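Figure 2 data, in text form.
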Amino acid sequence: MESEKICPHAGICGGCAYHEIPYEDQLQIKMDAVLDHLATNKITIDPVDIKPIRQTSELYTYRNKMEYSFGDEMKDGPMTLGLHKRGSYMSVIDTVGCLLVPESFNVIHAAVLEWAYESGHSFHHKRTHHGFLRNLVLRCGVRTGEVLVNLVTSSEETLDEAAFTERILSLGIGGLVGILHTINDRRSDVVAVDRVCTLYGRDHYFEEMLGLRFRVGAFSFFQTNPAAVESMLTEAAKMLTEATETQSKSAGTLYDIYCGTGTIALALSGSVERVIGIELICDSVVSARENADINGIGNCEFICGDAFEILENAGALGLPAPDLITVDPPRMGLHPKALKRVISYGLPRILYVSCQPKTFSENMAVMQYAGYRLAALGVYDNFPFTKHTELVGLIERDPIR
């Protein structure tokens, strides 16, 4: 593994918490945190069923997406573009030179900030909710080399779209496939879409993972570190296969809840008769459907909507009862109503992929009370230098219950 480097923003940027800590110590901190959450929620699991934390293959340049914010570091100071200052919601620091992103991101980042100064546009103030420039969202395909640029603004001023497009094109970024302008007039600081215009190329990029090709839309959820996720999901599929003791299509129907662009659904499609993916973000559903077509997979269907509502009305929608469920919820975990509905099926096993050990443990406590047990747990450091840890839990129903 590559030796550790010194980040120019270490100790200041809120994106990373552990740049000052040796990597081996970071791994121990994360593993201890996982064990603490399990203990706090009284989760019963044999220690031999908890795998040692798995290191990522790359410490740096692993991120395929960054959402930069326009702002200022000091009140009424010069415009900045980057991430929030550590411990501050209002302050934004320039993070050009970030070690976690590909070099093309740093080049685009610096050029857009220079353009912002020259254009004379204002930035959107989080307190007053007025101003023009809001975010710069950069995405790329690690395996394909494709790059997507998305400038997010309010509608308070007029963007010279031709001039902005020409500035980006003049950088000569290899693999640039699309330049977008998104209008977001909502008060929330989250990147949202009121209107989007494709200024150049297309509104999506392609990635390759698990032997499959994925179309990723500008607003679709897709794993941030593809190489690490590929390893994680390969082990997850093996975990599930070993539990069922067969790779045949005996599992019948799989419900993949919070399916995103279909990564898990497509990866497991060869082991079941039918896959039904459920996802709230419609842009992701569009991508998931296209991904199934691209890869010639015909036993997957994807539904856009709230997980609980779809599960609650599955019969009316003509959906068969599931024989197997996989879930990959956002950081807040499974909503209590959705969790209750998942438990109500009484399935022999559930595969739970989590990006938040705290909410995973809280959900697991509810499932344990309902007669399930945590049969195996994989822990993965997919995001070095940050506090984030990924988990894969194989959850089995106690046959006595």
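Caption note: The chain has a mean pLDDT of 92.
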